[in-house]
Design brief:
Elements (H helix, E strand, L loop, with lengths): L4 H10 L5 E4 L6 H8 L5 E10 L4 E7 L6 H7 L7 E3 L2 H8 L20 E5 L8 E3 L6 E5 L1 H10 L6 E2 L58 H8 L12 H4 L2 H13 L11 E4 L3 E4 L4 H7 L3 H43 L3
């Protein structure tokens, strides 16, 4: 089990690191986080968890308004234009041991993340303090880059700050400037068990409803044993997977978020706040109707697109991951039925 928020905060205190902590509702985006701590003056951070084709992992931690060009970064690492991409969600829990929305440099405190490379935005150094989640996205902590360095050195990490907006030419006479940050070791993720298809397992008068054991031919004892061991594997944490795997719920959820952004009947200015999605000004006044005239529809449309884009992307990711989890669980249950007894 990885470090908890409480354990991390205790460690920072033991290291005599100066920081302030601020509790808030769970947030999934920098925009939502800014609604709660943006007024405090610290530099908010965005943190990307990436992997390359050789299963080497990277955390890229940048000031929120820094533009990170993934293709340029990949070339600077010596991996070609498409050498890095977002790491799968299962890598968050297996390697960093944090849930979605909780990636930060502090994730490296876990032993499972020992081979993960950390790339820090040099912009942090010019800020009075930086804002990160302490392994949990229901709290933000503020500390200086110097104190972040102190923590990283305490876990055996040498901080590497780079200009993430630079696009140096990489070529024969100009080697990639960030090649030294590529991890020397790969990290293997646990692969889900491969399910046997009906083309591999011939059915012989088998009716699933009568729970008769399936007869399998051409399979070794070891293969059968591996399949039966699926019974003993712990169930994947479901959280909200049952909810988000339901496509109708997913559609209704989008419609509810969008409907919150339409005009009110009396044209009063209202603020719609949401624990997960932050707060947005989305109602308009009679004055705005007169101001925009025929362009009102376009203004409302742009406002909806602006405030819902990132939130709906997160919803889509949750739906995709939940659907995958549900499908995998269904496969396991099928195997348990087939090999029952």
């Amino acid at each position: 089990m990885g470090y908890t928020k409480e354990q991390l905060l205790a460690r920072l205190k033991e290291l005599d690191i100066n920081f302030t902590q601020h509790e808030h509702p769970v947030v999934l985006t920098v925009e939502a986080q800014a609604q709660h701590v943006g007024h405090l003056g610290g530099a908010l951070s965005k943190n990307l968890f990436l992997k390359d084709k050789k299963n080497r992992f990277y955390i890229v931690s940048a000031v929120a308004d820094t533009k990170v060009d993934m293709k340029a970064l990949s070339q600077r690492l010596g991996l070609g234009k498409g050498g890095v991409r977002m790491a799968p969600e299962e890598a968050l829990t297996e390697i960093l041991q944090v849930p979605l929305g909780c990636v930060t440099p502090f994730s490296l405190v876990n032993e499972t993340a020992r081979h993960v490379s950390l790339i820090l935005d040099q912009g942090f150094r010019s800020k009075e303090c930086c804002v990160f989640h302490p392994l949990s996205n229901d709290m933000s902590i503020m500390l200086s880059a110097h104190d972040l360095d102190k923590f990283l050195k305490s876990i055996g990490r040498k901080p590497a700050y780079v200009d993430l907006e630079a696009t140096p030419v990489v070529g024969k006479d100009q080697p990639p400037d960030l090649a030294s940050l590529v991890p020397s070791d790969t990290t293997a993720l646990s692969e889900p068990a491969k399910l046997v298809t009906t083309s591999q397992v011939p059915l012989q008068n088998h009716d699933v409803q009568d729970n008769k054991p399936l007869k399998v031919t051409g399979k070794s004892d070891k293969q059968l044993s591996d399949l039966k061991n699926l019974k003993e594997k712990p169930a994947v944490a479901e959280k909200s997977s049952k909810t988000f795997a339901d496509s109708q719920f997913f559609v209704n959820d989008i419609l509810e978020k969008a409907s919150a952004l339409v005009l009110s009947e009396d044209f009063n200015l209202q603020v719609i706040s949401d624990v997960e999605f932050g707060t947005c000004l989305i109602q308009i006044t009679e004055e705005n109707v007169k101001q925009h005239g025929e362009q009102l529809g376009a203004v409302v449309s742009n406002n909806i697109r602006k405030h819902l884009s990132s939130e709906l992307n997160n919803r889509a990711a949750l739906f995709k991951n939940a659907a995958y989890t549900e499908g995998f669980q269904a496969g396991i249950r099928s195997m348990q039925i087939l090999f029952k007894g």
